[in-house]
Amino acid sequence: MKRSSKKLPRDTNQRAAEIVRLSTEEPAPIQTEPVTAYLAAIGRKGGLKGGKVRAERLSDKRRKEIASLGGKALSKSRQNKPLP
Fold it and tell me: Where along the chain do its domains lie?
């Protein structure tokens, strides 16, 4: 539904009629340009393989450092939260 900067009428009946008109209005189809769609597809393709390639290129030592930092951050965030 399209948001309007136009204020709704103060009269109750007119306001109700305007709300119904806005809620039943057909949304305009979203048109994407071919270039945008192409770039989105390329970005998704790179994102799908990026993590695996990065993990393969990291040395074992660096990968352990990153995992250690993640574990410390996780335990720190859990310290302040009470258990349910």
Answer: 12-79
